[in-house]
Amino acid sequence: MSAAFRKAAKARQRPHRERAQPASRTKLGLLEKKKDYRLRAHDYHKKQNALRALQKKALDKNPDEFYFKMIRAEVKDGVHVIKQPKDEVTPEQLKLMRTQDIKYVEMKRVAEAKKIERLKAELHLLDATGSGPRQHLFFVDSEREVQEFDIATHLDTVPELVDRVYNRPTIATLQKETVKGPTDPAHLKKLAQQRKNQYDLLRQRIEREKAMFVITQKIQTRKDLLDKTHKVKVKKETTTGPAIYKFKFQRKR
């Protein structure tokens, strides 16, 4: 066989390509391929060095060494697990603790409710936010009256006081007395901002009082669950309400 023929046959041969490792099998280790021998060797020596370091650490450890975690640890499936101490509480003590919690939360809720009533009395619920825009309907008989309708004339007041929803005196009252209270626009704007801040505070206190009421209900439900009476859950617990249970009827003396 001539050299030219061998060269042509070699050129016709397909190059050998090694199979690529699927991504799903990379966690199983490196493939037994020629080009991966360096990677496999490096991984092997790394694990051997780690094992030698652990063995040296175990040999250097003092066998008489003691620390308190030894008496609170146990081995499960080859892993050290620290035992969590259990609270020694009787059912009667737990019920009493629940009762004290309910009394404390209820006391805070009642105090919050009193603050809400006091704040409402100060604000008199003027321009309450969240109640929606105020609407005042006026009824007329014809289309012409609609076009010629004037709010100030209909309310018998001056145009400057039309925007007021409270303390809107009539023209006859203004002729006898002067307007009471601030009339400067800057001062009125400042008072409006203060009133808005007070209503924001009122809304926050109302939400806090509702949250405390829900907490009281949940604590009471957990206290009732300590009873050994048969019970069935009717409704799951939510952020706005406690779980609902149906207890078996039991006649008591």
Task: Explain this structure.
One of its GO terms (cellular component) is small-subunit processome. Pfam families: Utp11. Belongs to the UTP11 family. The protein is mostly helical and about 250 residues long. The protein has a domain at about 90-245. It contains 7 helices and 4 strands; from the N terminus they run ααββαααααββ. The chain has helices at about 5-10, 35-60, 90-125, 145, 150-155, 170-175, 185-225, and strands spanning about 75, 80, 230-235, 245. The strands form 2 sheets. The chain has a two-stranded antiparallel sheet. A two-stranded antiparallel ribbon has the order 3-4. β1 (about 75) and β2 form a beta hairpin. α3 (about 90-125) packs antiparallel against α7 (about 185-225).
Q: What is the H/E order?
A: HHEEHHHHHEE
> Could you tell me how far the N terminus lies from the C terminus, measured between alpha carbons in angstroms?
116 Å
Overall number of strands: 4
Report the average pLDDT across residues: 77
- Low-confidence runs of at least 5 consecutive residues: 128-132
| Percent strand | 5-15%
Tally of DSSP helical segments: 7
Q: What kind of sheet is the major sheet?
A: 2 strands, antiparallel
Gyration radius from CA atoms, angstroms: 41 Å
Which structural class fits the helix and strand makeup?
Answer: mainly alpha
Helix content: 40-55%
Subcellular location: Nucleus, Nucleolus
InterPro entries: SSU_processome_Utp11
Region (Disordered): 1-28
Biased composition (Basic residues): 7-17
